[in-house]
Amino acid sequence: MGAVAERMLVAGVGLVGGSLALAARRGGLVGEVVGWGRTAENLEKARALGIVDRVERDLARAARGADLVVLAVPVRAMPEVANCVGAAAGSGAVVTDVGSVKGSLVSQLEERLGSRFVGGHPIAGTEKSGPGAARADLFEGKICVLTPTRRTSSEALEKVRALWEGVGARVRLLDPEEHDRALAWTSHLPHLFAYALVSRCPAAYREFAGPSFGDATRVASSAAEIWRDIFAANARFLAEAWESVVAEAEKFLGLADRGAVEELGAELERARRKKSDATGT
Prior knowledge:
281 residues, three-stranded mixed beta sheet
């Protein structure tokens, strides 16, 4: 695959933004990668690790001359960053993001950037953060959801699609609201549960935590700033998913309380089979 962009700006050089920059550079998808971030320490680390070609602390200066911009900052910060990028980058620059919430965010960014904005969300990552966690293979074989609307330029969509396919992702298209409903179940709710479980588990019991506790709470090590914004932005669909899961758990507990062991076992077996069908394990 040839170059997707002559100059790509990555605003936010943490795990996802840094991994995308690293993968794009190594794959020859971009001529130059410029990194922008809030702290000099992270920027210098990204430069030293070969994630970006050069770094800028001034966002407007970083955006000048870029023909592709990736917004990889926390969700709540994206509209302000988009304002600056929209004013500084050329009118032909395509802008995309990696935010885990799309509905309200896509509307806000389209207001600022128009048809050249393409909503995106790579479903890949770890609980680690910062440029030191960046990996060039992070997106290989993973799904990246793009959320074009009626306003989205077809040329912009194809440019962003080429970027993600070039780093090994499998691109899927979804309506922004449908994306948020799906991710509430598959990502946001597991994070909410993990944070709630470690928050309420009595300290005296933590020495007895086994692998299942570690598996269930691994993602509670994720950056609080990122998940604070995601929970707030997707509160409606997250609450719907939470209420449905609580109702299912209460059904299981009700069967256990009544001593309906065979019926409970059948319900758990049905759940086990669904998990096996979904993940192959």
